[in-house]
Structure formats: C-alpha cells, structure tokens
Write a structure and sequence with these properties.
By secondary structure, the protein is an alpha+beta fold. 27% of the residues lie in helices and 42% in strands. The protein is elongated, with a radius of gyration of 16 Å.
C-alpha cells in the first residue's frame, strides 16, 4: 500500500501529490477585468479540447486559467493552500 507520513513535511508532500492543497476561485467583476488585462501582458500557454479553450499563466505560486467555451467564460485563480 503506502507508507504513513511520519513528519509534517511528508504529510504535506503526500497531500500535494493527491491535489488536496489546491485552492481555486473564479474571479468576477472588476477584479476579473483588471486581472485579465494584467495577464494579457504576460506570455501564456494554450490548450483546446474541442469543447473548451484554455489560456494559462503562471505567476509565482499562482496559476490563472481563462476557460472559454459553449456557455463558459471563467477566469480561475489556483493557489496552494498554506497549512
């Protein structure tokens, strides 16, 4: 199976591998517009899965995804929870 974490660092590494330390929020309104304007000045990566188009930026420890598709237009901020 797997080893039980014995230190806080091992526990954090395990939680990070499992994806439990990510905190996501959808930016809205004026904050969304200002952030998107700032992000457009930076280099981004693109992906397309035929239904959704995603433009991504990594700024330090924060990742931003602009997801656009049929009925979807979200700017998502992804950070790691600090525990």
């Amino acid at each position: 199976m797997f080893d039980t974490p014995k230190t806080p660092e091992q526990a954090r590494a395990f939680l990070k591998r499992m994806g439990y330390l990510k905190k996501m929020r959808v930016l809205e309104g004026e904050e969304r517009e200002k952030t998107l304007t700032m992000l457009r000045l930076k280099e981004s990566t693109h992906s397309n899965n035929q239904h959704l188009w995603t433009e991504s930026w990594q700024l330090g420890a924060v990742k931003y995804d602009h997801v656009v598709g049929d009925g979807v237009d979200d700017l998502i901020e992804i950070t790691e929870d600090d525990i």
